[in-house]
Amino acid sequence: MRILDRYINNSIIKIFIATTLIFCFLYIVIELACTIDEIIDRKIPTGILIKYYLSFIPIILIRTSSFACLISVLFTFSAMNNSNEIIAMRTSGLSFWQITKSALCFGLIVSGLVFLVNEKLVPQSTIITNKIRDENMVLEVDRLSKTQRIDNLTFYGLQNRLYHIETFNPSTFEMQGITIIEYDINQNIIQKIVALRGEWTGIAWKFYQCQITSYSSEGRNEPIKIKIFNEKLMDIQENPKDLLRQRVDVSAMDTRQLKEYIDRFSKSGATKAINNLKVDFHQKVAYPFGNFVIILIGLPFALMIKSRKGATFSALAISVAIGFVYHVLNALSLAFGKGEALPPILSAWLTPIVFTIIALIIIEVDFKG
């Protein structure tokens, strides 16, 4: 590694670590401030709080990594620009890519690490934090019971059943658009239940306009019997609270688990829910790459900063502006994907692609490669 690359990397890594620690501290302080009432009311032991916030760290790292990358790179190169080091490099014949090579490699490494953390640590962290919150801080059922309506409720239930409910009202325990698929031990469909509406009687679920289709036991997924009922009490062991507890949390899955879930759920006929899950799947793959893209588009601006007095402020302002625009546009793109206005894969990759193209155009125009 060249001396120049080591010099740049040392600065970027030091600022990145410091920025990450600051973000973790601020994130925990804000989270603590938002839940302080529940902590005091429930008299939560210090040990549980420490476990909760330690398990929350991988989630914080994933959410703040792009801003930390951008700030560390912009601070490093704006400082070098102000001390005329960039001018010296350009005068010696180094191109934009040669100057920024180490920063771009750093972005690729961070993207890979973010993907691994998101795959290996975040699912388990999500499960632990949700469990601690539900049992000790804010009960999930209590929190969700205040919601007027939950759309596209999906979960695996008892008896190897897959549930999809278009809308569920936690206050009245009423369901609309119900699809339940029951599998055998070999994951072949043995029964499919479709109902227009369902309500909790206090003892059991009653479905209205219900159709129950039985399938061949030979694994060919061929219907052999169809029964239709105007209303029917169902043999479903899950009560309304179980529905709220068991609903699928995509953040608690890695890409393999989510892909398997989508493949299994694809037979339900719930196209809206399947589309949303596909968007979430592609986002899990595309999101880490944003760390590299956001560095790529930030570097030209860092090399353009000329003011010595306002270098730090300018770098920070540019970081916030670029990060904000990137994440807002990415959220809009995902929303269009879940609204079926964009294909799932395009909705996840549109923002990284657009920002990459913009970055390359700026680099070509201002730095001539």
State the separation between the terminal residues, measured CA to CA: 22 Å
Query: Which percent band covers the strand fraction?
Result: 15-25%
Count of alpha/pi helices? 11
Envelope shape: elongated
Write down the domain tally.
2
Element-level helix/strand string:
HHHHHHEEEEEEHHHHH
Provide the gyration radius in Å. Answer: 26 Å
Strand order of the largest sheet: 1-2-3-4-5-6
By DSSP, the count of extended strands is 6
Q: Summarize the amount of helix as a percent range.
A: 55-70%
Uncertain residue ranges:
none
Walk me through the topology.
Elements: H1 3-42, H2 46-82, H3 85-91, H4 96-120, H5 122-137, H6 140-144, E1 150-157, E2 161-169, E3 174-183, E4 189-200, E5 205-215, E6 223-233, H7 240-246, H8 255-265, H9 271-304, H10 311-338, H11 344-367
Antiparallel strand pairs: 1-2, 2-3, 3-4, 4-5, 5-6
Structural summary, described in words:
- Strands 1-2-3-4-5-6 form a six-stranded antiparallel beta sheet, with helices on one face.
- The longest helix has 40 residues.
- The two termini are 22 Å apart.
- With 369 residues, it is an alpha+beta fold.
- It has two domains: 216 residues, no CATH class; 101 residues, lipopolysaccharide transport protein A fold (Sandwich), CATH 2.60.450.
- The chain is built from eleven helices and six strands.
